[in-house]
């Protein structure tokens, strides 16, 4: 299984605020950049949507460790199974630090096509998280 890690994101919001928001898929639609996502549907611990450059993506909340960790299982229309691991910890300014790890089991043929879009998705997501207002539930550009 291949593993891709994001850079650590420093957030001004406390761990509990970030965790509570990210552990609920109904919030994810506003978390992902709207120009990259279409046909969003969230129900309980699962959601699915169309992601530019990747196609249909389905996510299921597989494991939750309150205020520390989320394990999200995913699959795409390209047949790629993956896990998105979300690690959340406190930083020394009263905020939090977040790191994303994407694990995907890619065969040699799929890896050549999917590796770049998966890396881009991970960087896009962590970049957007860094600029997100977790108290309002909207990107900061919507103030």
Largest sheet at a glance?
A: 8 strands, antiparallel
How many distinct domains?
1
Molecular shape = globular
Give the percentage of residues in beta strands.
35-45%
Tell me the CATH architecture. 2-Layer Sandwich
Topology:
Layout lengths: L1 E4 L3 E3 L3 H8 L5 H4 L5 E7 L2 E6 L3 E11 L3 E8 L4 E10 L5 E9 L3 H23 L1 E2 L4 E2 L4
Antiparallel strand pairs: 1-8, 2-8, 3-4, 4-5, 5-6, 6-7, 7-8, 9-10
What does this structure look like?
This protein has three helices and ten strands. With 143 residues, the protein is an alpha+beta fold. It has a single domain (2-136), classed as 2-Layer Sandwich (Alpha-D-Glucose-1,6-Bisphosphate, Chain A, domain 4), CATH 3.30.530.20. The strands form two sheets. Strands 1, 2, 3, 4, 5, 6, 7 and 8 form an eight-stranded antiparallel sheet that branches. Strands 9-10 form a two-stranded antiparallel sheet. The termini are far apart. 19% of the residues are buried.
């Amino acid at each position: 299984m291949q593993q891709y890690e994001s850079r650590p994101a420093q957030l001004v919001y406390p761990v509990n605020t970030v965790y509570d928001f990210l552990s609920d898929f109904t919030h994810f639609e506003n978390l992902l950049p709207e120009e990259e996502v279409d046909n969003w549907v969230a129900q309980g611990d699962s959601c699915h949507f169309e992601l530019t450059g990747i196609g249909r993506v389905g996510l299921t909340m597989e494991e939750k460790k309150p205020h520390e960790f989320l394990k999200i299982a995913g699959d795409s229309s390209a047949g790629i199974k993956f896990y998105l691991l979300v690690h959340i910890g406190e930083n020394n300014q009263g905020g939090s630090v977040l790191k994303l790890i994407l694990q995907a089991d890619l065969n040699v043929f799929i890896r050549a096509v999917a590796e770049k879009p998966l890396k881009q998705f991970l960087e896009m997501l962590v970049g957007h998280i860094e600029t997100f207002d977790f108290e309002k539930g909207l990107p900061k550009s919507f103030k």
